[in-house]
Amino acid sequence: MELPLMGIPRNLAIIVLIMLVVGASAIQIVGTFTGLVSAQANTPQLSITLTTAQPQYQPNSMVEVQGQVTDATGDAVASASVALQVDSPTGNEIFYSSSIVTNTAGTFQTQVPLGSSSPPGTYTVFASASKLGYSNITTSTAFVVGTSTTPSVIIQAVYAGDSAGNPVSSFKSGQEVWVWVVVQNIGAAFQGIVWVEVQDPNGVSVQVQMNPVQFQAGQTAKSSISFGLPGNAPTGVYTIKALVSDKLISEGGTFLASTETQFDLTG
Predict the structure, then answer these.
(1) 2.60.40.1930, 2.60.40.10, 3.30.365.10, 3.40.190.10: which CATH number matches 1-148?
(2) Could you read off the pLDDT of 118-165 as tens digits, one per residue?
(3) Which residue ranges does the chain devote to CATH 2.70.50.60?
């Protein structure tokens, strides 16, 4: 079945965050952030990872898709329902399954067959996880069939850490937090933008930053942003959302990949 809204997975809402820069005498809109959120609120949040076994495939092959569903503490969530959709480079749905269930380790996997006439280019995989008592969560990844002539990236990792790039899972008020985003370019070279949004335990956005990055074909780039946690910052679990776009959204850019992770503020 063809989905509305340019291949956005079923049962998801769309939000738009307008980034404003306040100058001495004017407010300038410098970009917009479009994300996917579930309709549920005030319930524990799931987290989901999604990858393919390899970044590039050929027609008439089998794509191995796998992932894991966890809770806010990083513990595996068993028996979560996962809906999976794959869209072709033209945005047409070529695969959909809503019957995937996580095992006791919170992991899931499935196979997506590619036809012998599958067109070359970048294919997008969407996954949405749900379980009673939790807010739904959605993520996406991509793979290339043949050779892609358009930008296509995979966010390999996003994590909170220190200035040297070492992962850190827990921070205290007043401490500096570095967010590291590792992106693999599996498509054509392009000048892109890495976006990072940080939300506090109440879901309030406390940081939105972006970095321009030159992505070379076939290479992996690492980008970082940093910010300080004020002394009155609420304690609890903070959510980091990382996205990559091919240009500013206000200039007609498109988000190519997104993922999220979390860290704790203990006071």
Answers:
(1) 2.60.40.1930
(2) 999 889 999 999 999 998 888 888 899 998 888 888 898 999 999 999
(3) 150-267
For the residues of 38-84, what is the DSSP string, one character each? -S--SSPBPEEEEEESSSEE-TT-EEEEEEEEE-TTS-B-TT-EEEE
Strands (DSSP E) found in the chain: 13-22, 27-37, 47-52, 56-57, 62-70, 81-87, 93-101, 107-113, 121-130, 137-145, 153-161, 170-171, 176-185, 190-199, 205-215, 220-228, 236-245, 255-265
Q: What is the CA radius of gyration of the chain?
A: 19
CA distance 167 to 158: 10
Question: What is the three-class DSSP state of 4?
Answer: helix
What is the DSSP annotation of 173-201? Answer: TT-EEEEEEEEEE-S--EEEEEEEEEE-T
What architecture is domain 150-267? Distorted Sandwich (2.70)
